[in-house]
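Go through this pair.

…
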Amino acid sequence: MTDYNITANIPAVEALHQGKLVTIQREQNPSATIRAEYAATARPCPPYCIQPMQLAAGVETLGELEVLDMLRRIRHGESGLLVVDSRTPDWYAKVTLPGAINVPYAQNMAGIATDLPGVKKTLVEIYGAKETNAEFDFSNAHTLAIFCNGPWCGQTPNYIRTLLSLGYPADKLKWYRGGMQDWCALGLTIV
């Protein structure tokens, strides 16, 4: 039997997803195909416009190996890191990356106003920022790897631009541009 490893030196990566250990590996069935929701290549622009590789100054664009490394580091107890699925809860429930948490852009960051309860809760309770004098202190905030459906999905770029406008440090924001479409195209484990 042929093994379809992630790389020549990485057969699989373990991640924690909702408290359970999940082994992420490439699909081992040679006749497997991409999921139907990610097979479409014709999408109207707008809103499904292809996004740039470099989203904003200081924001690193990640590929699958960098996301896998982040998931591995989280699994091994490194604090201050989060992999964030910015899609709506129905998409997250359907399929996501093992180890990703769901913090939807549309419900938590749309509108940019810093007095919205959802924004404050997200920044303070989930991302580790501190609110001081109606502003945010991001010195101890988590490093986030944020993704959505793929290179044509504008949710994560808008999410990251909103976080930047609120003062979130660019070096603590990572963008997995390929998102679910690339993850599924590569046959990586989903939950």
Remarks:
- The radius of gyration is 17 Å.
- The beta strands are 13-17, 20-24, 60-62, 81-85, 101-102, 130-132, 135-137, 143-147, 173-176.
- The longest helix spans residues 64-75.
- The domain at 13-27+48-185 is CATH 3.40.250.10 (Oxidized Rhodanese; domain 1).
